[in-house]
Design goal:
Blueprint: H1 2-15, H2 21-31, H3 36-57, E1 60-63, E2 66-69, H4 77-91, H5 95-116, H6 140-157, H7 168-176, E3 197-200, E4 218-222, E5 230-232, E6 246-251, E7 256-260
Parallel strand pairs: 3-5
Antiparallel strand pairs: 1-2, 3-4, 4-6, 6-7
Helix pairs in contact: 1-2, 1-3, 2-3, 2-4, 3-4, 4-5, 6-7
């Protein structure tokens, strides 16, 4: 078992970069010939990977002056661990283990895919928004995308429940990474104490994935209420609009729109 564990651990480092199949191949190759010891080695390797990803998820890195939280890395734990255990079951050499290996691999892959959904919104920070997005808004759409991502990451840690509306900024701050994202650039700097964003209180403490029409349900938006943790029923949009006569809002499906002032 020690030899199988060492081989599995070493091989898993480069092969974990290969989606789904890589971890399974690492533990299958590492555990060949070890029989039942291959399963034990795979489980230990899976625990080591989970622990490492859990630690990394609490860290952040600085990329071109922007602090990026590594929380999404934890979403890789199920697929990597599932692949390692599946490979260990296959390496044990019993046909009865093959079906179990497929179930473990499918479960780990499905769970990682489900959890990783909100993180795709991060890609929105690097793509061009459709015509509904504001063009000259001083970074406001990017801030709202970050607030959306942070809220969904919070929900993934709390059984899919979005943060309570009355303390939403407090609850998602650790997922935002850069506190400046919680302040609309048009309302002043940190010294002003103003924020300018609100949360739709109708979705506070609700299941993020159960909204009937996420594409038309606002989550965060420009608000005339400048206090921290501002929230209302989508009624505080500034008049006139804060950005060239328009206000920005991010919806539960992750898209940002530039809206005419009410």
């Amino acid at each position: 078992m020690p030899t199988a564990l060492a081989r599995t651990a070493v091989l898993s480092v480069p092969l974990a970069l290969v989606p789904i199949i890589g971890p399974a191949a690492a533990s299958w190759i590492g555990g060949r010939g070890a029989r039942e010891g291959a399963i034990a080695a795979a489980i230990v390797a899976a625990l080591l990977w989970t622990g490492a990803l859990w630690w990394l998820s609490g860290q952040s890195v600085n990329v071109s002056g922007t602090t990026v939280a590594l929380g999404p890395l934890l979403f890789l734990a199920p697929v990597i661990s599932g692949g390692l255990v599946a490979g260990g079951l296959c390496a044990a050499g019993k046909r009865s283990y093959m079906a179990a290996a497929l179930v473990v691999l499918a479960a780990g892959t499905s769970w990682s895919g489900y959890q990783f959904g909100p993180v795709w919104s991060l890609l929105g920070q690097f793509r061009t928004e459709p015509e509904t997005a504001a063009r000259d808004t001083g970074g406001c759409p990017d801030n709202l995308r970050k607030l959306y991502t942070a809220s969904r990451l919070y929900a993934d840690s709390w059984d899919d429940m979005l943060p309570p509306a009355d303390v939403w900024m407090d609850r998602i701050s650790e997922y935002v990474g850069d506190d400046s994202a919680m302040r609309c650039p048009a309302v002043g700097d940190a010294a002003s104490g103003k924020h300018g964003y609100a949360m739709n209180r109708d979705v506070g403490s609700t299941a993020a994935g159960e909204a009937a029409r996420p594409e038309t349900t606002p989550l965060h938006y420009d608000s005339a209420t400048l206090d921290r943790n501002a929230n209302d029923a989508f009624t505080s949009l500034p008049r006139p609009g804060r950005h060239n006569g328009k206000n920005n809002a991010v919806y539960l499906d992750g898209h940002v729109e530039a809206l005419d002032a009410p």
